[in-house]
Specification:
3 helices; 5-stranded antiparallel β-sheet; 123 residues; alpha+beta; globular; Beta-Lactamase
């Protein structure tokens, strides 16, 4: 994994989301170790969402479906969290939903950061 490229991923995210960006954190799913986080990142939130992802995956084992590429949590107030599980890693992105258009987040920003992250992991 190329940490320098991971930092570039964070820079892309901040630039693309502008004022709507609140925080972001990438952790190891196995032990919750933080790889990279922004200043405002809530590590406890990232760890909690890591546990939630594991719970959702386990719950979906009884259905003919599995967790997709991401899930979106609409938090009370103005925040929302995009959770992107990548196997051994999980990326959480917290945004101000009043300032970030959901279509922009899911159709433009998400594909860009996924591609950048995958490039960083194989480097």
């Amino acid at each position: 994994m190329n940490i320098q490229k991971i930092n570039v991923c964070m820079d892309i995210l901040k630039k693309d989301l502008g004022e709507g960006f609140i925080a972001s954190c990438i952790i190891m799913t196995e032990d919750g170790q933080v790889l990279v986080a922004t200043d405002q990142a809530n590590i406890a939130e990232a760890t909690l969402l890591n546990d939630a992802t594991a719970f959702i995956r386990n719950a979906l084992k009884t259905y003919p479906a599995e967790l997709g590429q991401y899930y979106y949590v609409d938090v009370a107030g103005t925040m929302a969290v995009l959770v992107i599980p990548f196997g051994d890693y999980q990326w959480t992105v917290t945004v101000n939903k009043k300032q970030v258009k959901l279509g922009l987040l899911l159709n433009v920003v998400l594909p860009a950061i996924i591609n950048a992250f995958e490039d960083a992991v194989v480097s």
